[in-house]
């Protein structure tokens, strides 16, 4: 039994070497290192104190260092095994592992960054000096680059659940309540698509922009005076067998020019065509040409021109069904004296008058004139004839056997200076006309003899 005098023992004096010592209340000193051992689990906590470093080391039952805290005048470092998840420095807190926050109090504030001064933003700073700043106005500001994720599955959501924007590497989508997708933007290889609706791929596409083209899959609404300007061509092509491209302009003055182009149009092709179509057939088309006037081409093939005043057709010639509405005139002459004998043709070596806008149907030799349109023609021949025997002059058709078509009453002339004849001739398109001296006749044609053809009616 211990006596009362034992209370005066100095601190850390061993009573029994096999048992732990007791500590007095004051002036207790440990000799570094000092270890506290759990004899039952064989774990140990060791305290080390040196001149510049202090350490608290925990060892497991196998003697391995499970974790430790090392501190000096600059930092306090926390180890798990041999890694450092947390280091507390004089001016920073370095976290090398995942940082988790838990709302233990239910306040909803998992993390707050508050500066020492109300005039200085709070900063979360990385090791290279860059960081995220939380400004007083509620703005979160980063350095030059902010990256969200490293894969195509990375997502950034902005806004409340009821109305938000979702950004992914290939998508930029707008969502309303209950996740309803109302449109956005998505990338398809090197093509950028802007769409409206819930299907971003095909059915709701609005605008497709690729490195070489801009594609419209919806109507383009141009309402201002200068709504659309193209540096090159605006090309509208069909998207399937019975759906043509569309060019539509509304609510304003506009000019539509459709010119032939060298690649498959002119000179062998044709210029553009304006049509109206449904999904399966040509539909009625109305061109509003001005106040109280329009051109209507319905699907039954009937074209109607209406106007509250006068319809002016201003052109050298007006044609219907391939034939002209007005009388047309061609006139030819001979330029020198010539001799025509025995079933030979009179050569018309100069055209004096061809109505503007009409072709010249005379062949290169001047022997035959081809009717450009089917219909009734009035033909006149005026010849200046030199001395000679009996002559018979006929207007003939090369393409119609027996190749001689009497031009009215045959004309017989003997030593006459001038003879004229005329007749009406019904011709088909391409049928050829000329003037001959029949077999056995020889005539001398003086210069300025005339050959006139006038189109009368279809």
How would you describe what is shown here?
The structure is a single chain. This protein has 458 residues and is mostly beta strands. Among the domains are: 4-95, no CATH class; 156-216; 324-457, Jelly Rolls (Sandwich), CATH 2.60.120.40. 0% of the residues lie in helices and 37% in strands. The protein contains no helices and 34 strands. The strands form eight sheets. A seven-stranded antiparallel sheet has the order 1-2-3-4-5-6-7, with no helix packed on it. Strands 11-12-13-14-15-16-17 form a seven-stranded antiparallel sheet, with no helix packed on it. Strands 26-23-34-28-31 form a five-stranded antiparallel sheet, with no helix packed on it. Mean pLDDT is 75; it is low at 1-5, 261-269 and 399-414.
Strand content: 35-45%
Oligomer: single chain
| Basic shape | rod-shaped
Helix content: under 10%
Protein structure class? mainly beta
Strand elements, count: 34
CATH architecture of the domain at 324-457: Sandwich
Radius of gyration: 53 Å
Number of helical runs? 0
> Which stretches of 5+ consecutive residues score pLDDT under 50?
1-5, 261-269, 399-414
Largest sheet: 7 strands, antiparallel
Just give the CATH class of the domain at 324-457.
Answer: Mainly Beta
The largest sheet has its strands arranged as 1-2-3-4-5-6-7
First-to-last CA distance: 151 Å
Q: Mean pLDDT across all residues, rounded?
A: 75
According to CATH, the fold-level topology of the domain at 324-457 is Jelly Rolls
């Amino acid at each position: 039994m211990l006596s009362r005098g034992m209370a005066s023992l100095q601190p850390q004096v061993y009573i029994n070497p096999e048992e732990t010592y007791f500590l007095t209340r004051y002036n207790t000193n440990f000799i570094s290192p000092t270890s506290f051992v759990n004899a039952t689990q064989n774990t140990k906590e060791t305290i080390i104190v040196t001149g510049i470093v202090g350490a608290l080391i925990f060892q497991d039952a196998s003697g391995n260092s499970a974790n430790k805290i090392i501190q000096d005048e600059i930092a306090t470092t926390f180890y798990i095994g041999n890694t450092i998840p947390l280091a507390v420095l004089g001016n920073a807190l370095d976290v090398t592992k995942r940082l988790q926050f838990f709302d233990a109090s239910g306040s909803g504030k998992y993390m707050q960054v508050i500066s020492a001064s109300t005039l200085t933003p709070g900063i979360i700073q990385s090791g290279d000096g860059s960081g995220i700043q939380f400004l007083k106005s509620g703005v979160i500001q980063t350095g030059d680059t902010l990256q969200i994720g490293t894969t195509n599955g990375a997502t950034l959501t902005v806004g409340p659940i009821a109305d938000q924007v979702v950004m992914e590497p290939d998508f930029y989508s707008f969502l309303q309540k209950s996740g309803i997708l109302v449109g956005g933007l998505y990338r398809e290889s090197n093509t950028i698509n802007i769409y409206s609706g819930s299907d971003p791929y095909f059915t709701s596409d609005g605008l497709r922009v690729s490195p070489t083209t801009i594609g419209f899959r919806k109507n383009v609404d141009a309402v201002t005076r200068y709504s659309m300007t193209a540096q090159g061509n605006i090309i509208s092509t069909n998207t399937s067998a019975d759906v043509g491209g569309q060019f539509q302009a509304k609510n304003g003055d506009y000019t539509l020019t459709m010119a032939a182009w060298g690649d498959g149009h002119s000179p062998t092709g044709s210029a553009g065509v304006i049509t109206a179509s449904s999904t399966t057939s040509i539909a009625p088309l109305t061109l509003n040409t001005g106040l109280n006037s329009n051109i209507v081409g319905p699907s039954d093939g009937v074209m109607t021109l209406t106007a509250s005043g006068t319809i002016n057709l201003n052109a050298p010639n007006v044609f219907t069904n391939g034939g002209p509405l007005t009388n047309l005139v061609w006139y030819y002459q001979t330029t020198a004296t010539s001799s025509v004998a025995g079933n030979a043709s009179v050569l018309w070596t100069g055209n004096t008058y061809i109505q503007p806008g009409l072709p010249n149907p005379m062949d290169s030799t001047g022997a035959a004139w081809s009717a450009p349109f089917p219909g009734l023609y009035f033909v006149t021949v005026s010849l200046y004839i030199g001395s000679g025997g009996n002559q018979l002059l006929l207007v003939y058709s090369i393409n119609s056997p027996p190749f001689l078509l009497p031009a009215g009453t045959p004309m017989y002339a003997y030593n006459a200076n001038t003879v004229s004849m005329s007749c009406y001739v019904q011709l088909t398109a391409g049928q050829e006309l000329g003037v001959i001296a029949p077999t056995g006749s020889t005539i001398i044609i003086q210069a300025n003899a005339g050959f006139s053809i006038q189109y009368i009616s279809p």
